[in-house]
Amino acid sequence: MSDVSPLRFYVEPSPAGGYFVKLAGSDAPVSRHDTEEEALARRDAYQLGAAATPVTGENLRLRDGSGVLVRPVRPDDKPLFVAGFERLSDESRYLRFMGHKKALSLRDLTFFTELDHADHEAIGALDPFTGEGLAVARYMRHPTDRRLAEAAVVVIDSWQGRGLGSLLLDRLVERAHEQGIERFGAVLFTDNRAMLALFQRIGDVEIVDHEGQTMEIDVSLRVGDEGAMHEALRAAARGEIEGSGGRDAA
Questions:
Q1: Are 29 and 109 in contact (CB under 8 A)?
Q2: pTM of the entire structure?
Q3: Which CATH class is domain 61-73+115-238?
Q4: Which residue of 5, 32, 114, 176 has the fewest CB atoms within a 10 Å radius of its CB?
Q5: pLDDT tens for each residue of the chain, 250 residues long
Q6: How far is 140 from 123, CA to CA, in rounded Å?
Q7: Pairing of strands 148-155, 183-189
C-alpha cells in the first residue's frame, strides 16, 4: 500500500478576483470560482472524491507485482494532475513538456481533463488503495489528418521502470484503433531513449524531422496481435525478458 497522505484542499482569494481552490503542498490552483460559497462547495467535493477509494476501472498487475487501476481520465481528476505534477522531478517535467515548467495552469488542467474521448483521449493509472495518480498516456487527433494523433506518456518518477508506461500506451493504441487513428506523432528530445523505445514497441517509427536536440517522429501503429508478435520477436532476438530496460517515460 502507498504511504501517500490523503489530499487536502483549501480556499483562498484570487488576486484577480474570485476564489481559488488549492491543494495543500502546491501553489497552483485546482480551480477558480466567482464566489466563496462556490469555492467551498467545490473544495468539499474534491475532498470527498480524494477520500474515496477508486472502484471503477481495470485492475492490472505490473511485472514487479504492483497493482494499478487503469481508466479514462475524468474532469474531476484535476487534483490528481496537480498532485502528480508535484511528484515529477525537474528532469521528468523537462522531458515531458519540452522545457522548464514550474506548475500546471488552470488552462492546462482543463485541457488535460475535459476530453471528448474520441479526438482527445487520455488513459490514467491510479494506486488502487489511495487513489493517487501514477501515470497518464494521451493522444490528440490532428486537426486536418484524422488518421494521425499526437501522443505522449508521463509516469511519476517513483513508478518509472516498472512497465507502467508500456501498459498505458498499449491501452491508448487500442482506443486509437477504435477511433480510426492509424499513426501517432510526437516531438522528442534526441536523447530521450526511453520514450523512443516505448513508441518502437507499438509501431514502425520514422524520423520525419530532426533539428538540434529534438526530433519529430511518425509511428505507424500495428494492428491487433501484430504489434505484440513484433515485440516478442525483437525481445527474443536481444535475449531479453519482458520489460527489461530503463525508465518508462518522463
A1: no
A2: 0.78
A3: alpha beta
A4: 5
A5: 344 456 788 899 988 889 999 888 787 888 899 999 998 998 888 887 666 655 578 899 998 888 999 999 999 899 999 999 999 999 999 989 888 888 899 999 999 999 999 999 999 999 888 888 999 999 999 999 999 999 999 999 999 999 999 999 999 999 999 999 999 999 999 888 889 999 999 999 999 998 889 999 999 998 764 444 444 444 434 343 333 233 344 3
A6: 12
A7: parallel
Domain ranges of the chain: 61-73+115-238
Find cell 518522463 and name the residue: 250
Q: Give residue 65's identity as a one-letter amino acid code.
A: G
Cα gap 74→53, rounded to integer Å:
15
3-class DSSP state of 46: helix
Q: 180-210 burial string, b = 16+ CB within 10 Å, else e?
A: ebbbbbbebbeebebbbbbbbbbbebeeeee
**How many C-beta neighbours within 10 Å does residue 71 have?**
15
Instruction: Provide the grid cell at 216.
Output: 519529430
User: What single letter denotes the amino acid at residue 203?
Assistant: G
